[in-house]
């Protein structure tokens, strides 16, 4: 059973990303065959600044390794280090109906945002299909926003297999029913587009400022409070054991606990989890050659699989 997913290098990760998508995957990396890559070809559809793309790609590599991605268990690579996906994308594009791509929500959303409708933006799901099919993936964990791209991937694989003979495994999506939605400091969904994030690797001072700024209601300190409607408690619960969460909930309900105190306890939990990871990240950043070796080794392992699939696809269409 092979699990594969890609992440676009698009800025600093926050605790919504961590609890919603990273941690569930990291917890599964011991279960089987896992491929995880940094989708820098995809990022090029929106990032047109070489230094920025380079920096963001590197940041994601450090973030994931610091958070526990184990390169001995997980094949971790930069998409652009496996150029076979580009050739496969071409072979897939010839069986991809244009209408299928024009109907994709993410394409339409980007057009609505005023992003230039380049060929790359339209062809984005074909490249994604190549990422997935080239590794003969069984399971692809993605957020809800990517579900349609997986349907496109399956459609493309079926068309290719029908036309040229069985070549690709049909992948199944694993849509994370996000560990509920992690709220941001303003109570909306935490998202970098809303400016309400608590970043994983911000400086301790900045984290403290963010946590102390979480919006709460104006119940007076001595009154009982409802933990189930409070943002501080919602975040605390993510870090705490069930017993610790039950204990804080009881203190909310009893009254006499101020939101300031709850925020300090949340900060302590955050630091207990992320202070060691911050150190690990700094240690990795101090040895860029080691990180580069990990990515190159991942790409070498990924290319063994990629070459095999590409060869089969070339043979199927008559390019061998
Ligand atoms: P953002 O909204 O900050 O741009 P992304 O869309 O890049 O975040 O999300 C990357 C991954 O993190 C997705 O799989 C998504 O489901 C998960 N994720 C992002 N924000 C949250 C959140 N607030 N709660 C739970 N999961 C989240
Ligand atoms: N499009 C995905 C996203 O923005 C990233 C991605 C690229 C991906 N290729 C993939 C995810 C293949 C899963 C499988 O989140």
Please give the CATH class of the largest domain: Alpha Beta
The major sheet is characterized as: 3 strands, parallel
Query: How many E strands?
Result: 5
Strand and helix order: EHEHHEHHHHEHEHHHHH
Estimated helix fraction: 55-70%
What is the CATH architecture term of the largest domain? Answer: 3-Layer(aba) Sandwich
Give an overview of the whole structure:
The radius of gyration is 22 Å and the shape is elongated. With 320 residues, the protein is mainly α. Strand 4, helix 8 and strand 5 form a beta-alpha-beta unit. Helix 4 runs parallel beside helix 13, helix 9 packs antiparallel against helix 12 and helix 10 crosses helix 12. A three-stranded parallel β-sheet has the order 1-2-3. The chain has a two-stranded parallel sheet with strand order 4-5. The chain has two domains: 210 residues, Rossmann fold, CATH 3.40.50.620; 91 residues, Tyrosyl-Transfer RNA Synthetase (Orthogonal Bundle). 56% of the residues lie in helices and 8% in strands. Bound molecules: adenosine-5'-diphosphate and tryptophan (TRP). Adenosine-5'-diphosphate binds next to helix 1.
List the helices and strands and how they pair.
Blueprint: E1 2-7, H1 15-28, E2 33-38, H2 40-43, H3 50-66, E3 74-78, H4 84-93, H5 98-102, H6 105-112, H7 119-134, E4 139-142, H8 147-164, E5 172-175, H9 204-212, H10 231-239, H11 242-254, H12 259-285, H13 288-317
Parallel strand pairs: 1-2, 2-3, 4-5
Helix pairs in contact: 3-12, 4-7, 4-13, 7-8, 9-12, 10-12
This protein binds adenosine-5'-diphosphate and tryptophan.
What is this entry, summarized?
The protein is mainly α and 320 residues long. It has 13 helices and 5 strands.
């Amino acid at each position: 059973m092979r699990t594969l997913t890609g992440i676009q290098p698009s800025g600093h990760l926050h605790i919504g990303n961590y609890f919603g998508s990273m941690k569930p995957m990291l917890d599964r990396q011991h279960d089987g065959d896992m491929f995880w890559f940094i989708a820098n070809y995809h990022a090029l559809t929106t990032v047109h600044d070489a230094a920025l793309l380079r920096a963001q790609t590197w940041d994601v590599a450090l973030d994931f390794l610091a958070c526990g991605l184990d390169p001995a268990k997980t094949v971790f690579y930069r998409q652009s280090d496996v150029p076979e996906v580009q050739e496969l994308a071409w072979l897939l594009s010839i069986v991809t109906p244009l209408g299928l791509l024009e109907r994709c929500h993410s394409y339409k959303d980007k057009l609505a945002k005023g992003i230039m409708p380049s060929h790359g933006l339209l062809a984005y799901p074909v490249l994604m299909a190549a990422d997935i099919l080239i590794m003969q993936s069984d399971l692809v964990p993605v957020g809800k926003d990517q579900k349609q791209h997986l349907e496109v991937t399956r459609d493309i694989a079926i068309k290719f297999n029908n036309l040229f003979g069985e070549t690709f495994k049909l992948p199944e999506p694993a849509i994370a029913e996000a560990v509920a939605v992690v709220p941001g400091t303003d109570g909306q969904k935490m998202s970098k587009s809303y400016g309400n994030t608590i970043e994983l690797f911000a400086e301790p001072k900045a984290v403290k400022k963010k946590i102390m700024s979480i919006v709460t209601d104006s119940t007076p300190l001595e009154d009982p409070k409802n933990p189930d409607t409070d943002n501080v408690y919602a975040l605390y619960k993510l870090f705490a054991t069930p017993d610790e969460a039950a204990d804080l909930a009881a203190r909310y309900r009893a009254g006499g606990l101020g939101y300031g105190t709850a925020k300090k306890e949340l900060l302590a939990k955050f630091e207990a989890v992320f202070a060691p990871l911050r150190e690990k990240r700094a240690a990795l950043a101090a040895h860029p050659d080691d990180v580069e070796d990990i990515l190159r080794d991942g790409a070498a392992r990924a290319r063994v699989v990629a070459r095999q699939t590409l060869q089969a696809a070339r043979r199927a269409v008559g390019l061998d």
